[in-house]
């Protein structure tokens, strides 16, 4: 990866960002509707949190899409990244409260085959999309695009956590597993929110990158 990109390449990357966020918005609206509906039917705090995260991912993608409709997208980096951070914080607070209520035994958690299905689908779709978006943001030197990719990465963590919680409940009747999964989701969301607010966007794919690539990216940021 070169330290600088041409004007034509930048235009291409901007177009790619818009396509990525358009797909992200469409997919996550559908995912969010299904997950929240399934979570409400099953009284699953983890599944509802997963669905709400989908809607926050939509807001995050909309923020990035808006940024890249501006004449000078780089100018809007900081407010866009901070907006993504606020979305993470909101998710963490809601899911924590919902999980504590569930742990208190207010409502039993039911089985949710639909929730299991949407979690599995997310585990298939999101890794490739997050990798593609982070690579694009890295080449552009855009922290907001990379932060949005970390939203997708969080969705992968959430999908696995929710799936484990739902399976433990379905197979063994461990209703508490759902609330524990939800609290893990909240902790991950809070951590990502703090990083986004600080503008400290580390690569979620560090194992796929070498030291030379990291040094080149740092040189690009400085230039």
Q: Which short descriptors sum up this protein?
A:
single chain; 223 residues; mainly alpha; Alpha-lytic protease prodomain-like; 7 helices; 80% helix
Question: What are the SSEs and their pairings?
Answer:
Elements: H1 7-42, H2 45-67, H3 77-103, H4 113-140, H5 143-172, H6 176-198, H7 211-222
Measured on Cα atoms, how large is the radius of gyration? 18 Å
> Helical content, roughly?
over 70%
| β-strand amount | under 5%
Total tally of structural domains: 1
Please count the helical segments.
7
CATH A-level architecture: Up-down Bundle
Stated plainly, the CATH topology is called Alpha-lytic protease prodomain-like
Mean pLDDT: 78
CATH superfamily caption: Cation efflux protein transmembrane domain
How many runs of DSSP E, i.e. beta strands? 0
Structural class: mainly alpha
Shape: elongated
The CATH class is identified as Mainly Alpha
Largest sheet: none
Membrane topology: Multi-pass membrane protein
InterPro entries: Cation_efflux_TM, Cation_efflux_TMD_sf, Tmem163
GO molecular function, one term: monoatomic cation transmembrane transporter activity
Pfam family, one: Cation_efflux
Describe the structure.
The chain has 223 residues and is mainly α. The chain has a single domain (7-222), classed as Up-down Bundle (Alpha-lytic protease prodomain-like), CATH 1.20.1510. The chain has seven helices and no strands.
Short description:
The protein is mainly alpha-helical. The protein has helices at 7-42, 45-67, 77-103, 113-140, 143-172, 176-198, 211-222.
């Amino acid at each position: 990866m070169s330290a600088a990109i041409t004007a034509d390449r930048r235009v291409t990357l901007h177009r790619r960002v818009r396509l990525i966020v358009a797909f992200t918005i469409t997919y996550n609206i559908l995912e969010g509707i299904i997950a929240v509906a399934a979570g409400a039917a099953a009284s699953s705090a983890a599944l509802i949190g997963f669905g709400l995260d989908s809607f926050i991912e939509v807001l995050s993608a909309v923020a990035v899409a808006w940024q890249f409709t501006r004449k000078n997208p780089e100018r809007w980096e900081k407010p866009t990244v901070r907006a993504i951070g606020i979305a993470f914080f909101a998710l963490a607070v809601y899911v924590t409260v919902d999980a504590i209520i569930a742990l208190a035994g207010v409502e039993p958690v039911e089985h949710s085959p639909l929730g299991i299905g949407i979690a599995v689908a997310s585990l298939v779709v999101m890794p490739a999309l997050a990798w593609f978006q982070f690579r694009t943001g890295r080449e552009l030197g855009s922290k907001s695009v990379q932060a949005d990719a970390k939203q997708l990465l969080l969705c992968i963590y959430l999908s696995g956590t929710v799936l484990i919680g739902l399976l433990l409940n379905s197979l063994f009747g461990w209703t508490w597993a759902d609330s524990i999964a939800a609290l893990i989701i909240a902790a991950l969301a809070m951590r990502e929110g703090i990083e986004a607010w600080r503008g400290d966007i580390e690569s979620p794919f560090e194992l796929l990158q070498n030291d030379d690539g990291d040094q080149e990216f740092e040189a690009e940021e400085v230039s």
